[in-house]
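Support case: heme C complex. Customer-provided input:
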Amino acid sequence: MWGTNLKILGVVLGTIAVYTLLANAIPQIESEVPEELSFTGEVSAEELIDAGEQLYAGAGGCTACHGLGTRAPNLLTAQGSEGPIGARCGNRVPGEDCKTYLHRSMVEPNAHVVDGFQPIMPDMSRTLSDAQIWSMIAYLQSQGGEVTVTSSDLAAAAPDAASAAGGAAAGPSATTDPEALLRELQCVACHKLGAEGQEVGPPFDGIGARLSPDEIRGAILDPAATVSPGYEQFAGVMPPNFGSRLTAAQLEALVGYLAERR
Ligand code: HEC
Ligand code: HEC
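Agent response - structure generated as follows:
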């Protein structure tokens, strides 16, 4: 039933991707920021699934890890002997139904780490609003399972979303404390800082001895422009949208702090 819709979406998304690439070729940093969803009143499962699919393939950043071999479990296709995510989500954690499990995988990814994988998935509530997260869950459920997300899930999330004015996509707090920023923006989900953090990307210790401040700034604003030697297999994993999530003062605080780590 979704077959034709998905094909049409595929073409539309393909076209968008080409334009995004062209836009990025212009020597000005144009990052993709997840666009906020505004649903009013009743929203159909179909609308949610469509929105979720666009985010999944685009600004949500999921395909940097999912669907690329062994870095993360396949979601849209079978994973090992298990079916696609909509079919297996209800069997992951005893007592957790599919919707609850998927919500937790998104906002508390380390609560349950799928066997055989590293805990590198970022907390998506940092970059996606509640409405976006629910649409993503509907889309994942539609991959082999029954969609149980309804407007009441969105309504329950609404007061919260309203107070956050645009959700987490609006960026982190106003702090310019570099260490707080590295944690808030989840840089340490992928980079080691002293004993803290994961080594998906190069460690921050010693980075000032390897890179100039300009190179550090460039790596944050446009991670795709250069790939750190030895980390080729993780090219494309670093989110490209920090440029629009950081204020100029926050960016300079980070660059200064990293440049001093020799
Ligand atoms: C930096 C890499 C990375 C990104 C980006 C990422 N994930 Fe993940 N994800 C993982 C890894 C690794 C796992 C398996 C380990 C775990 O469970 O945390 C995982 C697990 C999951 C699971 C549970 C899968 C299962 O079989 O139970 C879901 C659902 C999921 N991710 C959805 C998403 C969605 C949706 C996005 C985009 C909004 C996303 N992920 C972005 C790396 C990533
Ligand atoms: C989801 C994982 C992920 C997150 C989150 C992330 N990075 Fe990265 N980062 C990488 C990977 C992988 C590389 C190496 C591959 C590349 O160059 O794209 C990298 C490269 C870099 C480099 C270049 C390092 C070198 O030695 O060449 C800098 C600087 C950097 N990241 C800073 C940051 C900062 C600052 C943040 C937070 C604002 C951040 N990263 C968040 C994964 C991540």
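The CA atoms of residues 82 and 253 lie 46 Å apart.

Case will auto-close in a few days if no follow-up is received.
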